């Protein structure tokens, strides 16, 4: 989403600007939330997957790592007015780690051409949501020891319908954004 992939200083400047824009969008998407027990429902998963699709696996993963670093340093980038290490070791930790893995997977699939059709992009975004939900589930069930049944009930089941809707929204938005900026990569 930047005219050509320049090298040298311009390439570094491009990456810095895109990472900063991505972390800003992630922060805004975290603030749009529906508080639920244990884990809030936010728009972050949509933004995570769109960053992966638009940036590719390298820059998408770097953007998510920068976002987590900002949060770990205390910046209030996570859902609610929080930053610091608590979200990275509390109930949301698995989802946050899943964000990085999902950006990687989504970026890789996008670079392999899955972003060339809305149907394949929808499937790719669905897979990205599965990665996020699986990481969140595993952490809730085994990391903080909620158990499998409770982890499913509070950490996966409430998010399934929203994941399908966000996957569809992202699958339509990515091609529209690319048309708007006038290029594919």
Query: How many whole angstroms does the radius of gyration measure?
Result: 16 Å
**Protein structure class:** mainly alpha
Helix content: over 70%
Please report the total strand number as a whole number. Answer: 2
Which blocks of ≥5 consecutive residues have pLDDT under 50? none
Q: Which overall shape is indicated by the principal axes computed on the Cα atoms?
A: globular
- Strand content is under 5%
Following the backbone from N to C, one meets helices and strands in this order, namely HEEHHHHHH
Average pLDDT confidence is 92
Main sheet characteristics: 2 strands, antiparallel
Tally of helical runs: 7
Distance between the termini: 6 Å
Describe the structure in your own words:
The structure is a single chain. The chain is an all-alpha fold and 185 residues long. Helices cover 71% and strands 2% of the residues. It is built from seven helices and two strands; from the N terminus they run H-E-E-H-H-H-H-H-H. The protein has a two-stranded antiparallel sheet with strand order 1-2. Strand 1 and strand 2 form a beta hairpin. The mean pLDDT is 92.
